[in-house]
Amino acid sequence: MTAPVVVDIEPHTESSRYSAVYFDFGGVLSPPIEELFLEYERKTGIAPSDLKAAMAGVADPLGVDVLAPVELGMLTEDEWVRRLHAWLTARGIDVSRSQREFGRQWFDGHGVNETVRNLALQLRRSGYRVGVLTNNVREWEPYWRSMVGLDDEVDAIVDSYAVGLRKPDPRVFALAADRIGVPGPEVILVDDLQVNCDAAENAGWEAVHFVDNSRALVDLSRLLATTSEDGSR
Predict the structure, then answer these.
(1) Of 49, 74, 107, at which residue does a domain stop?
(2) Number of domains in the chain
(3) Which of 100, 155, 187, 221 lies most in the core, judged by the most C-beta atoms within 10 Å?
(4) In this structure, are 79 and 138 located in the same domain?
(5) Is residue 83, in this structure, part of any structural domain at all?
(6) Is 90 helix (H, G, I), strand (E, B) or coil?
(7) Which residues form the domain of 55?
């Protein structure tokens, strides 16, 4: 069954300015990140502020960003959760409902952002190359990839744990452009974090800061309506 048309998109031609679109997973193809934190609180009783503080408490001694320990494979999921639990327990926070298989519990009950998934499929049908560029975790791969269901539909999936690089590192954009076979200036990133959008633009890409579906559709369709000759149709 063909996915529905999400928005009017100019088909890719030889004169198109852009040839590929990479979608972020968390907060773009997934539900909003804050929604995921709130649902985790309902499952475990751990408030988002406490969980975020624990994540920082694990990452800070390693000198890296909050989720980098697992997104770069510095720690296994099991070791990371053990450290999270130790940090929380030391501050009197109950972790009895928080499972060691964090990813399974985190993603349980959630579905893909169907609008964005259908957009990705529509872009492929319109002649664009499409990829997923995600900061993610080895042990979480079965959950998020089955949730998104794009393994056989996109041209490239670049996952931080697998390549040893994560956004906003400029090197990951060079690698991702190479993986999808398109020069950087012809690639668009759709991401919910402004820091990643800024990094993509600094690497020569274009970026759409994802705030909600409707705004992203407008911004992306506008970019895809430009040509390489004069910058506009």
Answers:
(1) 107
(2) 2
(3) 187
(4) no
(5) yes
(6) coil
(7) 35-107
Residues 103, 116 within the same domain: no
Q: Which long-range contacts (CB under 8 A, 24 or more apart) does 206-212 make?
A: 206/18, 210/24, 210/27, 210/28
3-state SS string for 127-180: CCEEEEEECCCHHHHHHHHHHHCCCCCCCEEEEHHHHCCCCCCHHHHHHHHHHH
Distance from chain centroid for Cα 143? 14
Cβ atoms of residues 191 and 176 within 8 Å: no
Q: Are residue 138 and residue 216 in the same domain, yes or no?
A: yes
At position 137, the amino acid (one-letter code) is V
CATH number of the domain enclosing 145: 3.40.50.1000
Which tokens in the block code for residue 67? 């989720």
Check whether residue 88 and residue 133 sit in a common domain: no
pLDDT tens-digit series, residues 120-160 = 999 999 999 999 999 999 999 999 999 999 999 999 999 99
How many CB atoms within 10 Å of residue 54?
A: 24
Give which of 174, 192, 196 is closest to 183, Cα–Cα. 174
Whether residue 95 contacts residue 85, with contact meaning beta carbons closer than 8 Å, is answered with yes
> The tokens of 94 are what?
């109950």
- Give me 162's structure tokens: 């697998």
Q: Is there a domain that residue 1 lies in?
A: no
pLDDT digits (tens, 9 = 90+) for 185-218: 999 999 999 999 999 999 999 999 999 999 999 9
